[in-house]
Write a structure and sequence with these properties.
The structure holds two protein chains of two kinds.
Chain A (H helix, E strand, L loop, with lengths): L5 H39 L1 H16 L3 H14 L6 H27 L2 H9 L4 H31 L11 H12 L2 H29 L3
Chain B lengths: L21 E12 L2 E12 L3 E5 L6 H8 L7 E6 L2 E2 L4 H10 E4 L11 H11 L5 H14 L15 H13 L5 E5 L7 H16 L3 E5 L3 H7 L2 E6 L2 E6 L1 H6 L4 H10 L3
The chains are: A mainly alpha, B alpha/beta.
The complex binds adenosine-5'-diphosphate and magnesium ion.
Magnesium ion (MG) binds next to α1 of chain B.
Chain lengths: 214, 264
């Protein structure tokens, strides 16, 4: 055995927290950007873009993130394209989140009652004005709880990046578990850290929800 | 039926103000939802300043008919001319008509994320391109008219149903419409709030607004309508002045309906 204290375990794990957070932020920002683009396409060209967007969402929701990660990381390497674990993980997590965000946000726009469209139509507002002034602000409010839920999922999903060797929280905990021969302490500590991160996000979400209640 | 005082300023029916062509003209209008024939050969001319009450059993096509007039629904056959403009697929015409036709819904459909004042000024600012200050003044004028100026900075969710419906009426009036459509404006309200909304509508009638109103408030119909229409199964079955309509309905279906609605 060696002289790792509990504090040493935590200290080493905490050093990996920023990477988990970076990866989560990249995944969320990338996912949000892609899904906003897809939503614009879907609402601007419902006929032409509807099916491709739906297929995209189905494809990435319907396959395990782990397989997507393997395919990108090892598949690209096989084709002779150099990738880094960070790049592969960012790309896969972004695409994966974009699928869920697109689906969720689309649902939020549809969830705005039909009467809101009718009332604004009857006042003579143009379609883009209805969307911008009436529907999107309400959809935004509706989207807060599910979006916060998805952010928590994203944080937890970043743990999969450990599979391709990216050293974030989970990978760090594996290394520490191996070095200390105290897997229970290492994994228990990392689970606790994940919980703290996710719980903080939920708290912020609840606060935001209260502030913008309709 | 209605909670309105029987003695109101309006005698049985107001004189129709000087007309210059019909306000609304429906000729041979037919509409289907898929296979379902919801409007059958509707012919209806509404003169300027005229107030028409439409009644009939649920599902008879009353809402569909008035919603065709501002193109919330599309008709498939026949012609609808509103304020001299024929409704076609031309978006410009639809917009033009919607600027002249106000509508109130059963469930108010106020914009919950905007204050009462913002609900009222939205369309004048974005559709009429009115400066904000002017729009605010206009909105306060109409809020005073529906007797709730003190609620201007609240949100719709903070108001009672009756107040919300009066805001909805004021919101439509801010566009200075020539025609107002009402789709069962009081049927979602608690009984004690029906009166305040009907009073607002009566005062609108007194000012000579052209009104098409789907309602089962027969007291209101007697008081302000020039004509009452009975619809059933997508058709206009009967149309008459209120006095004759209520005292001497011509059709069996009208009699049956009236006996149900009047509760004897
Ligand atoms: N969007 C729709 N699609 C299919 N059927 C509809 C639709 N809207 C209304 N209907 C049907 O059309 C009929 C007339 O509806 P409506 O005009 O709302 O009746 P009313 O207002 O007289 O109660 C009803 O049978 C209703 O079920
Ligand atoms: Mg109806």
């Amino acid at each position: 055995m060696n002289d790792f204290t509990t504090w040493d375990v935590f200290r080493n794990l905490l050093a990996a927290v920023p990477w988990t957070i970076y990866l989560s932020l990249i995944a969320f920002a990338g996912g949000a950007a892609v899904s906003l683009l897809l939503l614009c396409l879907r609402f601007a060209f419902p006929r032409a873009a509807g099916t491709p967007v739906r297929l995209y969402v189905q494809l990435f929701q319907g396959t395990p993130l782990l397989m997507q990660l393997f395919l990108v990381y090892f598949g690209l390497a096989l084709m002779g394209v150099q990738t880094t674990p960070l790049f592969a993980a960012s790309l896969c997590l972004s695409v994966y989140s974009s699928a869920y965000l697109t689906e969720t946000w689309y649902g939020c726009v549809l969830a705005v009652p039909k009467g809101q469209w009718e009332a604004s139509s009857s006042l003579g507002l143009k379609h883009w004005q209805q969307m911008l002034l009436i529907v999107l602000p309400q959809a935004l409010r509706l989207s807060v709880p599910p979006t916060v839920g998805l952010m928590v999922q994203i944080v937890k999903n970043t743990s999969l990046a450990s599979i391709v060797g990216f050293v974030e929280l989970t990978r760090a905990s594996q290394i520490i578990a191996n070095a200390t021969f105290e897997p229970f302490l290492a994994y228990g500590a990392v689970a606790f850290i994940y919980f703290v991160i996710c719980f903080s996000i939920s708290l912020c979400g609840r606060h935001l929800e209260k502030r913008i209640r309709i | 039926m209605s909670n309105l005082a029987p003695s109101a300023a309006l005698a049985p029916a107001l004189p129709v103000s000087a007309s210059s062509g019909a306000a609304i003209e429906l000729v041979g209008v037919n509409k289907w939802y898929g296979d379902f024939h919801v409007l059958r050969d509707i012919d209806l001319t509404v003169n300027r300043g005229e107030r028409i009450v439409i009644c009939g059993p649920s599902g008879s096509g009353k809402s569909t008919m008035i919603r065709c007039i501002n193109r919330l629904e599309e008709h498939q056959q026949g012609s609808i001319v509103v304020d001299g403009i024929e409704l076609t697929n031309d978006l410009k015409r639809i917009d033009e008509i919607r600027r002249e036709v106000g509508m109130c819904f059963q469930h108010f459909n106020l914009f919950p994320h905007l204050t009462i004042l913002e609900n009222l000024t939205l369309a004048p600012i974005w559709v009429r391109k009115m400066p904000k200050k002017e729009a605010d003044e206009l909105a306060m004028h109409f809020l005073a008219k529906v007797k709730i100026p003190e609620q201007a900075h609240k949100y719709p969710g903070q108001l009672s149903g009756g107040q919300q419906q009066r805001v909805a009426i004021a919101r439509a009036l801010c566009m200075k419409p020539k025609i107002m459509l009402f789709d069962e404006p009081t049927s979602a309200l608690d009984p004690e709030m029906v009166k305040e909304v009907l009073e607002t509508m009566v005062s609108l009638a007194e000012e000579g607004m052209t009104m098409l109103c789907v309602t089962h408030e027969m007291g209101f119909a007697r008081q302000v309508a020039n004509r009452v229409i009975f619809m059933d199964a997508g058709q206009i079955i009967e149309m008459n002045e209120p006095e004759a309509f209520f005292s001497n309905p011509q059709h069996e279906r009208t009699r049956l309906f009236l006996s149900q609605i009047l509760g004897h």
